[in-house]
Amino acid sequence: MLRPMEGVRVLEVAQFTFVPAAGAVLADWGADVIKVEHAESGDAQRGLSRLMGMPVGGGSFAPLMEHPNRGKRSIGLALERPEALEVLYDLARTSDVFLTNFLPGARRRLGIELEDIRKVNPDIIYVRGSGFGSQGAEAERGGYDSTAFWARGGSAMGTTPAGFDGLCSMPAGAYGDSIGGMTIAGGIAGALFARERTGETSVVDVSLLGVGAWASALSVGFALLAGGPLPRMNTGQTARTNPLVGNYRTADDRWLVLAMLQPGRYWPEFCRHVGREDLIEDERFASAEKLMANAEDAAEILQEVLGSRTLAEWTTRFAGMEGQWAIAQDAWEVSQDPALRANGFIAEVTDAEGRRRELVASPVQFDQTPARLTRAPQFAEQTDEILRALGKSDEDLINLKISGAVT
């Protein structure tokens, strides 16, 4: 099994999901990721009990911690203490990547800014995850994915239909954080590749706002071309010129999403699968041009037809159909999706008590081989192991713990 980050050490001083998720991806790819948590409080995310109204798990297995931290080792360091900071610098000397989402003020106060880390390891790749970027008036501001990615990045307005009395929220917890973490992992891979080829190190910056704008890039591009705001779309309707692109409700109040971008090609086949062969010869839809010109009429007919049967019935009828379509699935259905499971993207992991659990694997595979996941560390679980690898004696460990520098 190819683990392209085997032999790479990542030193992570970060919390919550954005940025730690990058460390989890790198761990999936074989990196040794050392997670630094505060010696007393740990990652602040460990203290959350609910997210978006849902329980996050607890005890030996909490998906909120497992998702962004699986495969890592944890050490508890009170970086405000000089003894702990020296331990961090020792770790930085043997690391390839320093990864953080601490705000600039905190980095300066703790002594973990770029110049501090580069002083002990000039070749290290320094990686910053931020809300709004490292430049400009908001460089010192913090942000979450609901604010910087979803709201500022355009997704909130882009998903809210015209006429809707409200604003659409993110569809899942850590939605932008997870996407952003994957983006950071790609940036780190690029920086490591460049260092290998040129010998030059680099600073990698990824912001939630930048990731959000990238996710909305086409709409932003259209707005730039138009020179102003775009008209609000009713995202629940079909495309104005193609009845085979859009969302249709079934008899049991489920949704089918059609995305057949070549209506002329797929219309005859689709009509046969829904049992309306008469529509193929209907003069209003007899050619691609006529179908597009009469898209609204066709969409009304299709909604009537698709609304007459259940989702299960349409799933059976659409088997083998060439045209592109999907079921709008909830989180449980995603967890049971046969394609995800066939490709190993719902992966098994053994928790700290030896019980078999499952998580979503990161979406990149090498040589068609699913990632092998290992659990996230318990708080400061590998502190002694990591310190001993640095050459610390038992007496050193005791003194560090007595001083409160480590836990």
> Mean pLDDT across all residues, rounded?
95
Give the CA-based shape. Answer: elongated
Per DSSP E runs of 2 or more residues, the count of β-strands stands at 13
Beta-strand residue fraction: 5-15%
Characterize the largest beta sheet: strand count, sense, and whether it forms a barrel: 6 strands, parallel
List low-pLDDT spans.
Answer: none
Give the strand line-up of the largest sheet: 5-2-1-6-7-8
State the end-to-end distance: 35 Å
What radius of gyration results from the CA coordinates?
26 Å
What layout of secondary structure does this protein have?
Layout: E1 9-13, H1 20-28, E2 32-37, E3 50-51, E4 54-55, H2 63-69, E5 73-76, H3 82-93, E6 97-100, H4 104-110, H5 114-120, E7 125-130, H6 145-151, H7 155-159, H8 175-198, E8 203-207, H9 208-215, H10 217-226, E9 245-249, E10 255-259, H11 263-273, H12 278-281, H13 288-293, H14 295-306, H15 311-317, E11 325-327, H16 331-335, H17 338-342, E12 346-350, E13 356-360, H18 383-389, H19 394-403
Parallel strand pairs: 1-2, 1-6, 2-5, 6-7, 7-8
Antiparallel strand pairs: 3-4, 9-10, 10-11, 12-13
Helix pairs in contact: 1-8, 6-9
